[in-house]
Write a structure and sequence with these properties.
By secondary structure, the protein is α+β, with helices and mostly antiparallel strands. The chain contains 4 helices and 8 strands.
Length: 175
């Protein structure tokens, strides 16, 4: 399973942005593209790769083969009008693809996200061994359209980033 993460932020004075986002997500859920497993959207604070507070949409899909179906499906049929109405209010966006590594794959119950990079010289198997047992889920970055950390941990409650990781962003999130 992979997730397409998309950070986006409204243009100044864009009234109704959050409502339009909800309408788009409802349309996507009502007529799901092939391979689409569900989506969540979270308000986030600022992060080093964002111009300020933003929204993070988390689209879960079966695999890379389903990415094109999601990409095409988001802007066609019954989803086109809600997508276009939301996009007209956006100032910008950046995306990334993450592979599910461990823990629950449904991120909706999580309230915090910790983004971090693997320490230089550390092998992935060592990193994963050190992260084993931490609460939440772990997703590993595979591609991005903006500079951002390589990994995401989503605990159900606030916790500090692992001491061996280079934390770069932690945020409380709510729907």
């Amino acid at each position: 399973m992979i997730a397409y993460a998309f950070w986006h932020w409204p243009a100044p004075g864009a009234a109704g942005y959050e409502r339009r986002l909800g309408e788009f997500l409802a349309a996507l859920e009502a007529e799901k593209p092939a391979g689409f497993l569900g989506a969540s959207s979270f308000r986030t604070g600022s992060a080093p790769w964002l111009p300020g507070p933003a929204f993070l949409d988390w689209y879960r899909i079966g695999g890379f083969a389903d990415l094109e179906a999601l990409n095409e499906g988001a802007v066609t049929a019954s989803r086109k009008a809600p997508h276009d109405a939301l996009a007209a209010l956006a100032a910008g966006g950046a995306g990334g693809i993450y592979r599910h590594k461990s823990g629950p794959d449904d991120v909706r119950p999580f309230k915090f996200a910790h983004w971090f990079g693997k320490p230089a010289g550390m092998r992935y198997d060592e990193l994963f061994a050190r992260l084993r047992g931490l609460p939440g889920s772990l997703w590993i970055g595979r591609w991005c359209s903006a500079a951002r950390p390589n990994s995401r941990s989503s605990p159900r409650r606030a916790c500090r980033s692992p001491p061996h990781a280079r934390p770069s962003y932690a945020s409380g999130q709510s729907e």
